[in-house]
Design a protein that fits this description.
The protein is built from four helices and 23 strands. The chain is mainly beta.
C-alpha cells in the first residue's frame, strides 16, 4: 500500500500519490535493530530501565522510521456517499468520531508522508480544537463549520486552513456527488501554515513484541447508532482490517484499509455548545481497549491537560505498547 496510492484528480481520474522524502528506508530500522538498538520506542531522552535512546529518527505517531515533519490534520467525510476515501491509508493516525444523528466522521493525521490529494474533506467540530492541541500547532484542513466554531479555531493555536478561506488548496472531484467530492492538496494546505508544528511525543509507546496479558480477539465493533466501525484481525496481513457499516473499507485505489493497532477509547460525549453535536471529551482519564497482534488489552488512558499527550497504561502499571504502523483511535461513548 505504501507504493501505489491513487487519488482523484480534478478531472476525476486517478494518479499516483507523490510522497515527500520524509519516510526513511525500512532497512534503516532493520539495521538498527540488528546492531543491538532497543526494540522499545519512546519520545524522551532516556528509555525505561536506563537503556540509551535510539539514535535514528522515529515517528512518535507510528513507531516507524521518519524525520520530524509538519503535522496536518484533515477532517474526512465518512458518509456512504463519500466512500471510498482517498489517502486514509497514508495517515499516521486515523481518528473515528461520532457526530450528529449517530453518524461517524474521520480525522486523518499526516506527518510521516504526504499524499498528492486527500478527502473528501468536510466540516470541523468544536471538540476538534481541544482534541488537536496535544499535537502542538498543527494545520487543520476542513470545509465549513458553525460560525462560533470558526471563531474558536481562529482564536486557537491551530492553523485553520478552510476551503472557504483558501479555495486554491482544494478542488472538486468527479468521483462522488457534492457535497462528498471536495479534496485537498496537502502541500498547498501546509503552504498556508508555514509555522505548523512538527511531529513530537503525544504519549504513544511502541514495541515489536506484544506484551503479556492480552486476550485473544478476532473482532471488535463500535456502534454509533447510524454508523458502525468494526475491525477484524487478519493473521495473514498481520493487521486489523477495517469495515464501515459491515462493508469492507477500501481506499480509492482499491486497497483494504486497516491498522496495526486499534484503540477504542471510551470518552464522555455531552452535547457541545450548539446542543446538537456530541463533544468528545479527550482530556481526563478513562478506560480503553487496545488491539494489537490479535489480542485485546484493557488499559487506562490519561490526558491531564489539553496540551498533554495521551498515555495508555496496563493493569500492571506498565505502559501499553503499540505495534509499529498506522494507529486507529475510535471514540466510544463511556457508559
Amino acid at each position: 500500500m505504501l507504493g501505489n496510492t491513487a487519488s482523484p484528480t480534478p478531472t476525476g481520474k486517478t494518479r499516483g500519490a507523490r510522497r515527500t522524502p520524509r519516510l526513511l528506508a525500512a532497512l534503516a530500522l532493520v539495521g538498527a535493530l540488528s546492531a543491538g538498538q532497543a526494540a522499545f520506542s519512546w519520545a524522551g531522552e532516556t528509555a525505561p530501565h536506563g537503556n540509551p535512546a535510539p539514535t535514528e529518527a522515529t515517528s512518535p505517531f507510528t513507531g516507524l522510521p521518519a524525520e520530524p515533519a509538519p503535522v496536518l490534520a484533515v477532517k474526512i467525510d465518512n458518509h456512504k456517499g463519500a466512500r471510498p476515501q482517498t489517502a486514509l491509508e497514508d495517515a499516521d493516525i486515523v481518528f473515528v468520531e461520532k457526530v450528529e444523528g449517530g453518524l461517524s466522521r474521520l480525522l486523518g493525521l499526516y506527518s510521516s508522508k504526504l499524499p498528492t490529494a486527500v478527502g473528501p474533506v468536510r466540516s470541523a467540530r468544536e471538540y476538534n480544537i481541544e482534541q488537536l492541541r496535544m499535537f502542538g500547532r498543527p494545520a487543520l484542513a476542513y470545509s465549513g463549520a458553525r460560525a462560533e466554531v470558526v471563531d474558536m479555531i481562529n482564536a486557537s493555536t491551530l492553523y485553520g486552513v478552510s476551503h472557504e478561506d483558501f479555495p486554491d488548496a482544494y478542488y472538486r472531484g468527479t468521483d462522488h456527488e457534492a457535497p462528498h467530492n471536495l479534496y485537498g492538496y496537502p502541500d498547498k494546505i501546509l503552504q498556508e501554515a508555514p509555522a505548523a508544528g512538527t511531529s513530537d511525543d503525544i504519549g504513544f509507546r511502541f514495541a515489536d513484541d506484544a506484551p503479556a496479558g492480552g486476550t485473544p480477539t478476532t473482532e471488535r465493533a463500535v456502534d454509533y447508532g447510524a454508523a458502525t466501525t468494526s475491525f477484524t484481525w487478519s493473521a495473514e496481513e498481520d493487521r486489523w482490517l477495517t469495515s464501515f457499516d459491515d462493508a469492507p473499507a477500501t481506499s480509492s485505489d482499491g486497497d483494504r484499509l486497516g491498522g496495526k493497532t486499534i484503540v477504542v477509547q471510551k470518552v464522555a460525549m455531552p452535547p457541545d455548545s450548539s446542543g446538537e453535536t456530541p463533544y468528545e471529551e479527550t482530556v481526563g482519564t478513562g478506560s480503553a481497549t487496545v488491539l494489537r497482534d490479535g489480542q485485546a488489552y484493557e488499559t487506562t488512558w490519561d490526558r491531564p491537560t489539553a496540551e498533554a499527550g495521551t498515555t495508555f497504561t496496563q493493569a500492571n502499571g506498565e505502559p501499553m505498547t503499540f505495534d509499529r504502523g498506522q494507529v486507529w483511535v475510535v471514540y466510544e461513548e463511556a457508559k
